[in-house]
């Protein structure tokens, strides 16, 4: 994380905002019926809901956020009326098959970068245990109702993971998955596009040494 030379004004403002923040509800509901029959649903807090929630809190404390994409990263900067700022950088994968996949990654990482920078938490997904249970059984069809740009990005991610594993870098592949902060249904959808050899390599890499 980077900051302006001084932070004596912005840090108290952030503390004040965090003292008012509550857990934001996941108000985007997606229902999925798998091809084998089981149905599950999940919720998440989309970027527009997060922005709508934090905007009045920021205005009261003289804060604003800007996010910009450059060649290799997403920069999220929190600015204060005093001119002070703090920012974080999030790596972006440019090796997508098309701009739709890249756009899906940017949208996804904007949401997580912003939430992490200000300490915003969304409530737990009550359906997550059902999804985890399905991972041990029928996973066919899980994730098929995700937004198209997300699915494109997740397929590209699975290609990157497979390339790393096939090159003998399963540990780096596991780190890439972890850094992507995937939710349960997104992880399942991505894993569906990996062959058994790659999945085995990932499991071995993720076992405690």
SSE layout and pairing:
Blueprint: E1 2-3, H1 10-20, E2 28-33, E3 39-44, H2 47-60, E4 63-69, E5 73-80, E6 85-91, H3 99-118, H4 128-135, H5 148-166, H6 170-179, H7 184-192, H8 196-206
Antiparallel strand pairs: 1-6, 2-3, 4-5, 5-6
Helix pairs in contact: 3-5, 5-6, 5-7, 6-8
Key features of this structure:
209 residues, alpha+beta, 4-stranded antiparallel β-sheet, two-stranded antiparallel sheet, 8 helices, 49% helix, 17% strand, elongated
Describe the structure in your own words.
- The structure is a single chain.
- With 209 residues, the chain is α+β, with helices and mostly antiparallel strands.
- The chain has one domain (2-200).
- The chain is built from eight helices and six strands.
- The chain has a four-stranded antiparallel beta sheet.
- The radius of gyration is 19 Å and the shape is elongated.
- It starts with a strand and ends with a helix.
What's the Cα radius of gyration?
A: 19 Å
Number of helices: 8
Work out the count of structural domains: 1
- The rounded distance between the terminal residues' Cα atoms is 30 Å
Main sheet: strands, sense, barrel: 4 strands, antiparallel
The rough form would be described as: elongated
Spatial order of strands in the largest sheet: 1-6-5-4
**Fraction of helical residues:** 40-55%
Mean pLDDT, rounded to whole units? Answer: 78
Percent in strands = 15-25%
Name the structural class.
alpha+beta
List the uncertain runs. Answer: 124-138
Structure summary, number of beta strands: 6
Order of helices and strands: EHEEHEEEHHHHHH
């Amino acid at each position: 994380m980077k900051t302006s030379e001084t932070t004596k004004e912005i840090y108290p403002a952030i503390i004040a905002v965090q003292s008012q923040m509550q857990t934001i509800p996941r108000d985007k509901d997606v229902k999925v019926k798998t091809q084998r029959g089981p149905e599950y649903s999940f919720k998440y807090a989309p970027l527009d809901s997060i922005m709508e929630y934090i905007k009045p809190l920021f205005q009261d404390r003289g804060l604003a956020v800007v996010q910009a994409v450059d060649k290799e990263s997403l920069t999220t900067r929190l600015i204060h009326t005093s001119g002070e700022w703090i920012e974080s950088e999030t790596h972006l994968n440019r090796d997508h098959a098309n701009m739709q996949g890249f756009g899906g990654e940017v949208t996804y990482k904007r949401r997580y970068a912003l939430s992490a920078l200000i300490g915003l938490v969304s409530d737990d997904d009550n359906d997550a245990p059902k999804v985890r249970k399905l991972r041990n059984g029928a996973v066919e069809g899980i994730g098929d109702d995700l937004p198209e740009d997300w699915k494109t990005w997740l397929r590209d991610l699975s290609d990157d993971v497979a390339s790393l594993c096939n090159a003998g870098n399963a540990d780096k592949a596991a780190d890439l998955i972890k850094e992507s902060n995937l939710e349960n249904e997104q992880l399942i959808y991505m894993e569906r596009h990996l062959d058994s050899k790659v999945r085995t390599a990932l499991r071995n890499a993720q076992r405690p040494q």
